[in-house]
């Protein structure tokens, strides 16, 4: 016989949030890797000793991490998820009778405490240190950069008046004096770029001044974005370093790559032996910098370039290690694709270089936790 729904709800429920988290759920595997006591220890200097008790800082970080794991990067949407997603509540540590906090809690804590503290950078570095301790990090690495869209539009770009020629300045003044019909949508005004040449030397975004017009130089349209550089360990695809640079052409990748290598050597007691990368890194200053650091440059070789360091890379291309590095280097593209497709990394939510870097460290922390959850045995 056909069943019917029970219209009479129960008056009392006996619920344990743990029962809603399946054994193979990613959050169940990642959660034991996060040391909440360590987060509290790092946050302690940022809080006063008197006053009302704050929201536990470890819950704020767990909520952000869980949101990005689910692809929820908006703070308002994250609060909605915390209201009805039982697995996310379990991950963060909110009981059923606790209401999630207001969305402004995230932005206010970032502004007053976390942005300049370097906390997310420390948490990212500690996942790298854990991987090194567990002997998961080899001496062979890959460098790569990717463009990530900024939270700003093309319409936000205005000319820097100091760069305008007198004739162009007069033309703009006359166009303003001539007047025009008021825009029907002041919040999203109509902007025409016809006949106007824009570049990072002449224009700046009023929404995010650190964001630049950027493209890969292969005929694609320019986007408003940042260059994100990553240093990946080849054996297990762990990120050893991540940073964000304002777009400056190929230099934003090569300079950012050198900074990542120096930072890794300074932070962790471990040397890198080889670095693989694409042809964008086949530049004399970058190759020379690798040789000076006693790192073998397994860089994809071009036919151009006759310097000794170029010839050295071409000679290395005959070795087995070079070919293995070139095969493995493509895996970092999988990391970028994973972050952009599943975790909202296609576009930054925050604005300004400092806050954008924090968001990148959060993404690096998340990607490393996912890898460690697969590589390390489950806790008893």
Biggest beta sheet attributes: 6 strands, mixed
Q: Give a count of the beta strands, DSSP E runs of length 2 or more.
A: 8
Taking the alpha carbons of the first and last residues, their distance comes to 46 Å
Number of helices: 14
Query: Helix/strand/pairing class, anyone?
Result: alpha/beta
Shape category? globular
| Run of helices and strands | HHHHHHHEEHEEEEHEHEHHHH
Q: What's the Cα radius of gyration? A: 25 Å
Strand content: 5-15%
Helical coverage, percent range: 40-55%
Which spans have pLDDT < 50 for at least 5 consecutive residues? none
- Kindly state the mean pLDDT as a whole number? 89
SSE topology sketch:
Elements: H1 26-30, H2 36-43, H3 57-69, H4 75-84, H5 86-92, H6 104-114, H7 119-133, E1 140-149, E2 157-159, H8 166-178, E3 203-205, E4 212-214, E5 223-233, E6 239-246, H9 251-267, E7 274-277, H10 284-292, E8 296-299, H11 308-316, H12 320-328, H13 331-342, H14 353-375
Helix pairs in contact: 2-3, 7-14
Main attributes?
380 residues; alpha/beta; six-stranded mixed sheet; 12% strand
Tell me what you see in this structure.
This protein is of the alpha/beta class. 42% of the residues lie in helices and 12% in strands. The protein is built from 14 helices and 8 strands. The protein has helices spanning 26-30, 36-43, 57-69, 75-84, 86-92, 104-114, 119-133, 166-178, 251-267, 284-292, 308-316, 320-328, 331-342, 353-375, and strands at residues 140-149, 157-159, 203-205, 212-214, 223-233, 239-246, 274-277, 296-299. Strands 1, 4, 5, 6, 7 and 8 form a 6-stranded mixed beta sheet that branches. Strand 5 (223-233) and strand 6 form a beta hairpin. Helix 2 packs across helix 3 (57-69). The longest helix has 23 residues, at 353-375. The radius of gyration is 25 Å and the shape is globular. It starts with 25 loop residues before the first helix and ends in a 5-residue tail after the last helix.
């Amino acid at each position: 016989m056909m069943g019917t729904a029970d219209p009479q709800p129960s008056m009392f429920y006996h619920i344990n949030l743990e029962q809603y988290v399946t054994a193979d759920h990613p959050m169940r595997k990642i959660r034991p890797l996060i040391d909440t006591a360590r987060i509290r220890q790092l946050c302690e200097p940022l809080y006063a000793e008197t006053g009302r008790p704050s929201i536990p800082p470890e819950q704020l970080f767990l909520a952000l991490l869980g949101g990005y794991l689910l692809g929820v990067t908006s703070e308002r949407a994250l609060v909605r998820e915390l209201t009805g997603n039982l697995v996310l509540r379990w991950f963060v540590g909110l009981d059923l009778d606790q209401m999630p906090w207001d969305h402004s809690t995230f932005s206010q804590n970032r502004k007053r405490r976390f942005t300049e503290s370097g906390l997310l950078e420390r948490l990212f570095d500690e996942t790298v240190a854990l991987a090194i301790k567990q002997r998961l990090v080899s001496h062979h690495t890959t460098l790569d950069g990717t463009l990530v869209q900024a939270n700003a539009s093309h319409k936000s770009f205005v000319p820097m008046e100091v760069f305008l020629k007198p004739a162009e300045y007069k033309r703009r003044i006359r166009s303003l004096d001539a007047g025009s019909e008021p825009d029907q949508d002041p919040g999203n005004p109509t902007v025409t770029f016809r006949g106007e040449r824009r570049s990072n030397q002449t224009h700046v975004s009023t929404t995010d001044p650190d964001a630049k017009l950027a493209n890969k130089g292969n005929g694609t349209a320019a986007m408003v974005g940042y260059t994100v550089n990553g240093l990946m360990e080849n054996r297990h695809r762990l990120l050893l370093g991540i940073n964000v640079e304002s777009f400056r052409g190929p230099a934003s990748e090569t300079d950012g790559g050198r900074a990542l290598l120096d930072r890794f050597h300074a932070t962790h007691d471990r040397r890198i032996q080889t670095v693989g990368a694409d042809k964008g890194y086949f530049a004399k200053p970058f190759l020379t910098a690798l040789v000076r650091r006693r790192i073998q440059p397994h860089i994809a070789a071009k036919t151009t370039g006759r310097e000794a360091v170029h010839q050295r890379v071409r000679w290395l291309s005959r070795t087995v290690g070079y070919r293995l590095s070139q095969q493995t280097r493509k895996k970092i593209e999988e990391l970028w694709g994973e972050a952009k497709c599943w975790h909202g990394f296609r576009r930054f939510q925050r604005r300004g270089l400092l806050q954008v870097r924090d968001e990148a460290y959060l993404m690096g922390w998340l990607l490393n936790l996912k890898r460690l959850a697969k590589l390390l045995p489950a806790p008893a």
